[in-house]
């Protein structure tokens, strides 16, 4: 049995891609997994229980414990039902991995209100709503004398924290906010026995394959790796070991954001001072213009 033995984990967006790899690894490591996936399109349209159920079935067939869930984490009620199912099915909750996401790219002048709202809802609200309901459970457990050893792993993105992408104002903004939310959650929830960290992964998924410039690069890398039998740097499976470590009982880390791709893991630092100008009197516009490049 692995390092997650006895842990109960909710993993959102776990029907495909990175989330699927998380779910399979968590189960192999001994966790009971609630496989959440709405089963919609890249843009978030439609509902299909198939992806979540297939992953849950695969876990159970291999001797693990899993249930499928298609609740919409972009809604308060959906997130609440998801957390309730974990507690009902497996008797508790130890880990939340927020991974669900959609894409509706567009340049700022042409980006519609609905496309902005949908992406922010699934990513940012979808993270917060699940954290809200999970943390309410953990707080109650702590106050009842059953202090949790719980973990939250959020999913930010290079698009939001290191390399903003043109055409992804909605996605990048939500992902940057998720990094900030992670730091706040780590600070607030530590008192209840909860750690919070985030990852900014780069891997081959249906979303990245649909991103202009990324899809062709990742497809070519996969073909080359398969032909040569070499390491596939864009495989989504490369992301999950870090997430599994952060979810473990013995992991002490909290309040961190990690970039992860292929064989590289980097700890990221947020906005910080790189240069300061000062004056002993009130600023004038001319002074600022002369001193601030």
TrEMBL record:
Keywords: Oxidoreductase. InterPro entries: KR_dom, NAD(P)-bd_dom_sf, Peroxisomal_Beta-Oxidation, Sc_DH/Rdtase_CS, SDR_fam. Belongs to the short-chain dehydrogenases/reductases (SDR) family. One of its GO terms (molecular function) is oxidoreductase activity. Residues 7-205 form the Ketoreductase domain. SMART domains: PKS_KR. This is NAD(P)-dependent dehydrogenase (Short-subunit alcohol dehydrogenase family).
């Amino acid at each position: 049995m692995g390092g997650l033995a006895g842990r109960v984990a909710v993993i959102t967006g776990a029907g495909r891609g990175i989330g699927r790899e998380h779910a399979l690894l968590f189960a192999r490591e001994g966790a009971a997994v609630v496989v959440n996936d709405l089963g919609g399109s890249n843009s978030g349209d439609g509902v299909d229980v198939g992806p979540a159920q297939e992953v849950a079935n695969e876990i159970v067939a291999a001797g693990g414990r899993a249930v499928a869930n298609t609740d919409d984490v972009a809604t308060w009620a959906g997130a609440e039902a998801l957390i309730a199912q974990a507690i009902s099915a497996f008797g508790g909750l130890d880990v939340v991995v927020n991974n669900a996401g959609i894409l509706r790219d567009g340049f700022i002048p042409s980006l519609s209100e609905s496309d902005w709202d949908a992406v922010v809802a699934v990513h940012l609200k979808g993270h917060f709503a699940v954290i809200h309901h999970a943390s309410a459970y953990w707080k109650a457990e702590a106050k009842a004398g059953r202090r949790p050893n719980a973990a939250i792993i959020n999913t930010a993105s290079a698009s939001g924290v290191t390399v903003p992408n043109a055409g992804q104002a909605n996605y990048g903004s939500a992902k940057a906010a998720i990094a900030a939310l992670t730091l706040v959650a780590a600070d607030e929830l530590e008192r209840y026995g909860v750690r919070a960290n985030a990852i900014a992964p780069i891997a081959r998924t249906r979303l990245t394959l649909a991103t202009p410039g990324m899809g062709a690069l990742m497809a070519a890398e996969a073909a080359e790796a398969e032909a040569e039998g070499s390491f596939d740097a864009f495989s989504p499976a490369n992301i999950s070991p870090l997430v599994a470590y952060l979810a473990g009982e013995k992991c002490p880390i909290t309040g961190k954001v990690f970039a992860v791709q292929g064989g590289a893991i980097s700890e990221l630092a947020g906005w910080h001072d790189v240069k300061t100008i000062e004056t002993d009197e009130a600023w004038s516009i001319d002074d600022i213009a002369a001193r601030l490049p």
